[in-house]
Amino acid sequence: MVARALNRRSSYKKQYQAFVTKLYLARLETGLTQSEAAKRLQQPQQFISRIEHGQRRVDVIELLHIAKVYGKPITYFDPSHPPKPFP
């Protein structure tokens, strides 16, 4: 049972890393700096930095707001689909 729980956590970690990568790419595609994105989200710049470095988790309400600011549908952030390369 413990091994199964550890495997599940490892899987979630990989999925969350893919999700964070998509957040980062979405910001770049939008052409926003961390500071500009944070300002639009009414948050300090560290808010974006901590999310992009995996130091802070994003809740669903925050994700909805981020998606709106970045001009992306919520489905864009689905970690089960690999991110498209950014030019």
Overall pLDDT: 88
Count of β-strands: 0
Largest sheet: none
What is the CATH architecture annotation of the domain at 18-77? Orthogonal Bundle
User: Which class do the helix and strand fractions yield?
Assistant: mainly alpha
Radius of gyration: 14 Å
The first-to-last residue Cα distance is 44 Å
Helix content: 55-70%
Order of helices and strands: HHHH
Report the portion of residues in β strands.
under 5%
The CATH superfamily title of the domain at 18-77: lambda repressor-like DNA-binding domains
Q: Count the helices. How many?
A: 4
Which CATH class of the domain at 18-77? Mainly Alpha
CATH topology of the domain at 18-77: 434 Repressor (Amino-terminal Domain)
Tell me the quaternary state. Answer: single chain
Low-confidence stretches: none
Overall outline = globular
Topology:
Blueprint: H1 2-30, H2 34-40, H3 45-52, H4 60-70
Please characterize this protein's 3D structure:
By secondary structure, the chain is mostly helical. It has a domain of 60 residues: lambda repressor-like DNA-binding domains (434 Repressor (Amino-terminal Domain)). Helices cover 63% and strands 0% of the residues. α2 packs across α3. The model has no long low-confidence stretch (mean pLDDT 88).
